[in-house]
Amino acid sequence: MKLGLRLNLYRSATLDVPLELVRRAEQLGYHSVWTAEAYGADALTPLAFLAAHTSRIALGTAVVQLAARPPATLAMQAMTIDALAGGNRLILGIGVSGPQIVEGWYGQPWGRPHQRLRDYVTIVRQVLDRSAPVVHSGPEISLPYAGPGALGQGTALRSILHPVAPIPIWLATGGPRNTALAAELADGWLPMGLGPSGVPPRLRGLEVFTGVTVQLTEDVGGTLDAMRPLTAMYVGGMGSATHNYHRDAMARRGFPEAAEVIGELWRAGRRAEAEAAVPVEYLEQTALLGSPDRIRRRWDAGFVPPGVTGVIVDARQTAAVELMAELVAC
User: Is Signal one of the keywords UniProt gives this record (predicted)?
Assistant: First the structure.
């Protein structure tokens, strides 16, 4: 079992990278440190910073948003950061986000996200492989571009920069079509809504990392209550009545009725009721809270679903980061 450390920098109005916590995780043998993005801090720049201040911990994105940059740009940034880090350190975790961000923040059509993800990953792979000039003709993305407004002068190009090491591509997916795409095209899977039954057989050959919140506390109930607002906001507010992947993830983890209720209450402006509707059992599926003994008992009782190869720890306490290293015996 591998351990990663999650940095939730994208949620904050100010940028404060917990460098000493990352360095401690590296000392303890953590496999990786992970960043994300929404519509604040981006996922890649902090990894370049961490590359300069660490020596071996892998640098992962969970995730970069597909709409945030063209596929060739993502490949360029990945190769650049991995070169700065000395090679064999970057992991590209990619996700499609949702139509609210894709259309509202990036000004792009939602289109056909499944096909766009296929086109995107295929192009990124071609750039990273550097075996030939990049040519791809897809229903969502084509290179060279020859659509409306083109001069017809586009040239198939090969990256000037040579990657110093292979860069793995992981996909964050939840629905069946994109999850099948992860099994087909990816090196790793970041599941959205993995239930207790664990990883499907077709994905058992990949690296599969899930997330866990870890907090040492004497007030488990109060800590769970403090998690409700963010959970309700994601399940109820990070999407619409027709498109909300966090609501879908809650349903896949065994709580479809609660997901619907939270969504309805949130959209009706009844946010306190939406928060109260978040089941404690749902929160505890991905949280290890309490004393070291309580956390150890829950971990030893089979906390991680079958087939998972790593957990990404969301913790701000050095003692919690150290406890997880002890439990996993890094």
Answer: no
